[in-house]
Amino acid sequence: MGKLDHKVAVITGSTRGIGKAIAHEFVRQGAKVVITSASVANVQSAVAEFPPGTAYGFVCDVVSIADMERLVAAAVNKFGRIDCFINNAGISEPFGNITESDPEVWGRVIDTNLKGTYNGCRAAIGYFLRENIRGKIINMAGSGTDSGSNTPWISAYGSTKAAIARFTFAVAQEYKHTGIAVMLLHPGLVRTGMVSADNPTPELSKQLATFNTILDIFAQPPSVAAGLAVQLASGWSDSKTGVYLSALCGSRKKWLLLSYPFRKILNRIDRQTY
């Protein structure tokens, strides 16, 4: 018996990295998943990794509310219902200060991360209300979420994650009497393409040693975030809303920091890109 038996989850941006890890863990726990990306090839490749009948692929752009409405309709048509909607899709801008940034790229980060989360929530909550389903929504936090967490050189990304946190808790309050749970997950620091130091910008090159050390200390595999996502989607969160779980909570962060010298000596630092 899995923790998510007979559940159906839609996960945006789930053809790689954290989103794909969450999808795989959901399937292992008994759920069926809808995999999404703006790339046809990426969707087809990702779906092929899952056991037959457990995953369905849908190509969409989270910036489009019409695409999000179509995503919800397609998921229901395929699997009969939706129990959990995860707004995972997100991007970041190149490492640098704002005077050297491309305004179009900066704006695209805001649109994808923040507007995409809004669009996903709006489409999912509309469906849950129409069908009288006590559904669950999981939004993704990140650097910039916690008080005092500044994000120099990735100001668009950090701004979206701070805004997503406020947005999540606001929407949780708006729908707290409906049985719909709106929750926030901080996946921690994961070595994905978003935090890759390949082809670094001039600004990142200046700080590459510090950047790589931070990754060595605090980066974790996406399985940690996937386990927390299962917890939020499971019966554990029934009758709860506005819940926040973090893969870099205080105790976890302390353990990673204290264990770093030993992991370094024993050559047990995971440098895989997910």
Structural class: alpha/beta
Oligomer: single chain
Q: Could you say what the CATH architecture is?
A: 3-Layer(aba) Sandwich
- CATH superfamily descriptor: NAD(P)-binding Rossmann-like Domain
Across the major sheet, the strand order is 3-2-1-4-5-6-7
The CATH topology turns out to be Rossmann fold
Number of domains: 1
Count of discrete alpha- or pi-helical segments spanning 4 or more residues:
9
Helix percentage range: 40-55%
Largest β sheet strand count, sense and barrel closure: 7 strands, parallel
Termini separation comes to: 28 Å
State Rg: 18 Å
Outline:
With 274 residues, the protein is an alpha/beta fold.
